[in-house]
Amino acid sequence: MDLGQLAELRTPAGSAALAAATEVAGADPLAAAMTLRSAGLPAGLAAAALTQAELRRRAMGKFGPAAADMFFTRAGLEQATRRVVARRRADRLRAAGVRTLADLGCGLGADALAAAHAGLRVYGVEADPLTAAIAAANAEAAGLTERFTVDHGDATAFDTDRVDGVFCDPARRRTGTGRRIFDPSAYAPPWDFVVGLAGRVPRTVVKVAPGLDHQLIPAGAEAEWVSVHGDLVEATLWCGELATVARRATVLREASPGDASSSAGSAAHHATAHELTGSTVAEAPVGPVRRYVYDPDPAVVRAHLVAELAGMLDANLADPTIAYLYADTPTPTPFARCLEITDVLPFSLKRLRALLRERRVGRVEIRKRGSALEPERLRHDLRLTGDQPASLVLTRVGGAPTVLICHPPTS
Ligand SMILES: C[S@@+](CC[C@H](N)C(=O)[O-])C[C@H]1O[C@@H](n2cnc3c(N)ncnc32)[C@H](O)[C@@H]1O
Fold first, then answer.
1. Atom 14 in ligand 1: which residue has the minimum CA distance?
2. Which residues form the THUMP-like domain (predicted)?
3. Are 296 and 274 in contact (CB under 8 A)?
4. Taking the model in full, what pTM does it have?
5. Alpha carbon of 180 to ligand 1 centroid (Å)
6. CATH superfamily of the 77-275 domain
7. How far away, in angstroms, is 321 Cα from ligand 1 center?
């Protein structure tokens, strides 16, 4: 899409084309294009409308029903923050007293819209002209043009004295190829500028890749790792006055449309959140394998809060370098998956296969930490034939490759 096509899609004829494209999107793309062409739509408009309809359909997972009125680019959607995560961040900023916020590199506006929705006045800056125009169109679609305005320009030139908080979510993919960038020094805006913001604006928030090296966390900043339904989605650095602890793991679950707490069409707006916080100094005790094994949420592991979780669960590690926890009782927790262990075996394919046959196990869920085995390969090699389920945990205990045969806790 280019700026001309975006403008065309925003005319009454464009809206009609989008409505028609929404009806046929998701099916065979050639057939969809033919249907629109035979309804009299010019080829360019039909193609642009179909691309938008397809992106809107995909964006439902991140934005819920609001996606139906938004505009996207493929790269902008990939990089956009999920609504549930953006809204939590916005609420925290508001609670911390931020009223005017600069979003430096605002993309198509997912974070800025959430902040505007929370009542903040947001000044977005975006270097890519099409993405900036899309962010402005999304502000209009959300009825938030009075609280979220976008300038096309270079974020590094923004006068931060104009605002009382700054948010930056630097691009972590290369323009053109879309390839992920792992080295923060290649982020855009540049990492030096991004971390330098914390020295200039007392309330600075930075979104970074969840794989961020802990060494790069600015001194005194709070680092938060966020997961949604067990998938690690981002890390956030809360700098200056916004930092309240050293490390935080936030575990979010969105209500599914079938949940009693969620009304139809509003799934993306309901979420449960659990937070675990801690220092960087606690160490989990190391001891034996016990009756229950806990597989901590990736946000807890990345935040280095396994010791804090061990304290909550009265649990220990069985290997100082592997983040499985073991306890005598099954304590319900949102921060880990708990399994009851029935067998602990030194790893041997032959023995494992024989035991699973004896138990008529035909379906296995495989988890692993500290094991080089490939779960799909193992599943194939086990040649299971039974009708019973089991969970396998591949790990090391005291340095030795070990498999735990497990099932969900019964008590
Ligand atoms: C990761 S995206 C932001 C996504 C946004 N937070 C959201 O959730 O929709 C980063 C954006 O920064 C923009 N950008 C990179 N360098 C910039 C600069 N120097 N000035 C302004 N924008 C920049 C990129 O074009 C990209 O759209």
1. 105
2. 336-408
3. no
4. 0.91
5. 14
6. Vaccinia Virus protein VP39 (3.40.50.150)
7. 37
